[in-house]
Design brief:
This protein has 4 helices and 21 strands. The chain has 279 residues and is of the alpha+beta class. The chain starts with a helix and ends with a strand. Helices cover 19% and strands 42% of the residues. It is globular, with a radius of gyration of 21 Å. The chain has helices at 3-21, 123-138, 168-171, 241-253, and strands at residues 33-35, 42-44, 57-66, 69-70, 80-84, 87-91, 96-104, 107-110, 114-115, 141-145, 148-153, 156-162, 176-183, 186-189, 196-199, 204-208, 213-221, 224-233, 256-260, 263-267, 272-278.
Amino acid sequence: MSVRRWFVAAAAATVMGLIAAGCGSSSDDESVAADAPGTGEVVDDGSASPTPSVDGTSWVLVAGGGPAGDVPLVEGYPVTVTFQAGQLGGTASCNGYGGSYRLDGNELVLGEVSSTAMACEPPESMTAESAYLAALGDVTAVDLVGDELVLSGPASELVFARQAEVPAAELVGQPWVLETLIEGETASSVAGDPATLLLDPDGTLTGSTGCRALSGDYTISGALVLFTTFAADGDCPPELADQDNQVVTVLGDGFTVEIDGDQMTLTSQGSEGLVYRAG
């Protein structure tokens, strides 16, 4: 397991901590009103915008730009944002980021946004991250336009598509057995002892890479599963080192979930994935 990959796993847990912490923010959902002369009735003068309902939603960037130029979309390194209990966070193509937010009508007020600080390959992901964070820092408004989320500011516009939520009812409590390793367009078979994964309803996980035992805690936020604690114990023979590294990397980075019948595909940053079968 490389130092970089362990750092990414820690970053995912850090960002999730920001999202899960909550900040006790409040928003004013009431329209500006006035008494109609001589009637005593409350009349909405239409001057206030309704507050968009974004709490508990996850989104992926489809287009955007800002003070540092357009945000390039890099395959396998998405830009995402999740809103949860007064906190927002996600991946900025390379690093994880997070911070507080408050809505007043469609006005978006961001607190200090922090991010992890690692270098990524390909270099385009770093360019995308820099452009995105510059645009995010300029954002002052949020709108829901059809199925899209638009964050905008004086010099910025970021357009997001909604991400499907994790199918928690099918994922949690079901033992899974690893069948295939995916890296880009390449699929390879699994070796060693059965590589398993079980996410318990109590928020804990157990499993195996095929040579090391896995344990920890997880949380589900919108479209992502993130491990807040994660450990891999034991030793692996040289022939299983690559498999072990990929399993730990995909799970530790945070992943999206797609379930089709008894087959589950987990995908992480960089287009690495794991295909499991219900055991």
